[in-house]
Design brief:
Layout (H helix, E strand, L loop, with lengths): L1 E7 L4 H13 L3 E6 L2 E5 L5 H11 L3 E6 L1
Antiparallel strand pairs: 1-3, 1-4, 2-3
């Protein structure tokens, strides 16, 4: 399933790289990350909560999820 997350707290290229690496670590595909948002595909919808939790643990905040 395709998801788009709106993420607050991202402000630089390092932030983009952190989110990209995090998404890769949970098996997301077709990952596209920009400041304030991320688009990706997840085969297992149950993994979405894990993604959101990991993003929050890095100090960013997911404020909206579109699918």
């Amino acid at each position: 399933m395709k998801y788009e997350l709106k993420i607050e707290g991202m402000g630089c290229a390092h932030c983009i790289a952190v989110v990209q690496n995090l998404l890769a670590s949970v098996g997301a595909q077709n990952v596209r990350v920009e400041l304030g948002r991320a688009e990706f595909l997840l085969a297992n919808a149950d993994s979405l909560q894990q993604v959101i939790q990991k993003i929050d643990e890095q100090g960013y905040q997911v404020v909206d999820v579109l699918s």
